[in-house]
Amino acid sequence: MEMLRYIIPPLVGAVIGYFTNYIAVKMLFRPLHPVKIGGKTLPFTPGIIPKGKPRLAKALGKAVGTTLLTETDIKNVLLSESMQNTIKSYAGNLIRSELTLKDFAGKTMSPEKYNEIRQNICSVITEKIMTSANNANLGQIIAEKGGDAIKEKVAGTMLAMFIKDELINSLCMSLGEKVNEYINQNGRDIISPIIDSEAGKLENKSIYEILTEAGVDADKLPDSFLRIYISFIEKHADEFIRNFRISEIVEEKVNQMDVLMLEDLLMSIMKKELNAVVNLGALIGLILGTINIFF
After folding, report:
1. What is the pLDDT of residues 246-261, one digit of tens each?
2. Residue 143 · residue 175 · CB < 8 Å
3. Nearest to 271 by CA among 28, 32, 20, 14
4. Is 214 helix (H, G, I), strand (E, B) or coil?
5. Of 68, 167, 199, 207, which alpha carbon lies 20 to 30 A from 51's?
6. CA-CA distances (angstroms) from residue 96 to 83, 99, 141, 278?
């Protein structure tokens, strides 16, 4: 019996301390919803975190956006050596791959959209050629050059007596007008299939082939691409990152989370620490129970 006098108080204190802190930790999350009796909400319901979720969301958003993941931090990551090597490697692999221009376009848009863009490009090129032909006035050029050629051919011959310059000019001008008329009426029908055929050849070539045939040193392009990337990040990254609204996104995501999901998240981060709080309650209760024996 004398022994129980020394065992029971510390044991009771430890049990009380343990369950007191255990209940306190649970009350961080439970109950999930307000408990009402007679139209009045009981104190401490819902739990601290469900009740203060909007404030928690705002605090987490601010902590992540202004402390843990700042604009400078993101910019440093984007300009890090590993990121630069990744960008350069990706550009090099893309340029040297056997991916055709059509395949590459297919990765960024639907077939319907690609065909629409391809058709528009062919139409624009066709119209540009037609405009150039009209501005050049090919009929007049043919008339002038043709007239000069005929005059040169008949000069010094018997025909020169019968074919006067006026007749030659009249015939050639009429021919020039017919040429211009033919171009206006049929030029698109002639040019369009040629443009379409050339586009078909081009789209089935690899990017590396296209660049090489254009006289571009494709092996130097990854370095050029990297310089463009670095320049863009240095000049525009701050504004670009600011538009991410990191703080607001985190706050919105936390507010949208179910309370049970939020509990699981926090417990996965703080489980060890919260268990330590519970165990600390038992330890303090044990100490106080032991002290109580002597006073």
Report:
1. 788 888 888 888 877 8
2. yes
3. 28
4. coil
5. 68
6. 20, 8, 46, 61
Task: Convert the pLDDT of each residue in 37-58 to its tens digit.
Answer: 777 776 777 777 778 788 888 8
Helix axes 2-26, 259-294, angle to 10 degrees: 160
Q: What is the pLDDT of residue 134?
A: 73
Query: Looking at the DSSP assignment, which residues form a beta bridge with residue 36?
Result: 41
Cα–Cα distance for residue pair 70/279, rounded to 1 Å = 37
Tokens of 258: 């179910």
- The whole-angstrom separation of Cα 64 and Cα 74 is 12
Amino acid in position 114:
Y
Cα 36 from Cα 51, distance rounded (Å): 15
* Nearest partner of 278 among 14, 21, 26, judged by Cα: 21
Per-residue pLDDT of 138-177, as tens digits, reads: 666 666 666 555 555 555 554 444 455 565 556 666 666 7
Distances in Å between the Cα of 5 and the Cα atoms of 1, 17, 288, 294, 295 are: 7, 19, 14, 11, 13
Query: What is the per-residue pLDDT for 56?
Result: 81
How many Å is the Cα radius of gyration of the chain?
42
Are 53 and 255 in contact by the 8 Å Cβ rule? The answer is yes
Identity of the amino acid at 209: E
Identity of the amino acid at 197: S
Distance CA 252, CA 60 (A): 10
pLDDT higher than 50, residue 91: yes
Residue 159 has a pLDDT of 46
Contact 247, 64 (CB under 8 A): yes
What DSSP letter does each residue of 75-87 carry, written as one string?
HHHHTSHHHHHHH
Q: Are 48 and 28 in contact (CB under 8 A)?
A: yes
